[in-house]
């Protein structure tokens, strides 16, 4: 009998959910979100919605793309990374990831509305992190955009503390998440034509981890 769900993704989801709950309770992430004015319950709700939203991609448009010369992701690695095999037809559908793009943008807007941050400082910090993300990110054919985990959050924290030490935490989150989205995704839209994949998601795949870690680590460092 065929199960209505894949056991491995379900087990991974349960494990990650339990891990996040434990981390919030012991206070590691609570410290970060406390700097942003969130309670432990609100922090867990944000993490949960981000995790669930990471599985939701909203298609925006399609672009013509190059066909890969060969299979760029080995079948074993594709199964491990839970990357579905889709037939490539010469076009790549560009989508936006809810958990890795829309929720960070919405939370950044919330922080902007609750913190008196000068617009020039916000724009400067976002531009700085975007430049760093564009520089260190690399397109990975068949998968998406990859980048070192801690470069962007360290950059966001340093820039935010230099611009506004009193409000460095919200500025670090805003500049970190939006900077990675702009630098590693939006500024690399043209690179998506060379992925050789029928589907690419803004804020999804490799950059979801980068955006998530950037927001948390940048706040902890700020």
TrEMBL record:
<feature type="transmembrane region" description="Helical">
    <location>
        <begin position="143"/>
        <end position="163"/>
    </location>
</feature>
<keyword id="KW-0812">Transmembrane</keyword>
<feature type="transmembrane region" description="Helical">
    <location>
        <begin position="39"/>
        <end position="61"/>
    </location>
</feature>
<dbReference type="InterPro" id="IPR011672">
    <property type="entry name" value="DUF1614"/>
</dbReference>
<protein>
    <recommendedName>
        <fullName>DUF1614 domain-containing protein</fullName>
    </recommendedName>
</protein>
<keyword id="KW-1133">Transmembrane helix</keyword>
<dbReference type="Pfam" id="PF07758">
    <property type="entry name" value="DUF1614"/>
</dbReference>
<feature type="transmembrane region" description="Helical">
    <location>
        <begin position="118"/>
        <end position="136"/>
    </location>
</feature>
<feature type="transmembrane region" description="Helical">
    <location>
        <begin position="12"/>
        <end position="33"/>
    </location>
</feature>
<keyword id="KW-0472">Membrane</keyword>
<feature type="transmembrane region" description="Helical">
    <location>
        <begin position="169"/>
        <end position="187"/>
    </location>
</feature>
<feature type="transmembrane region" description="Helical">
    <location>
        <begin position="199"/>
        <end position="221"/>
    </location>
</feature>
<feature type="transmembrane region" description="Helical">
    <location>
        <begin position="88"/>
        <end position="112"/>
    </location>
</feature>
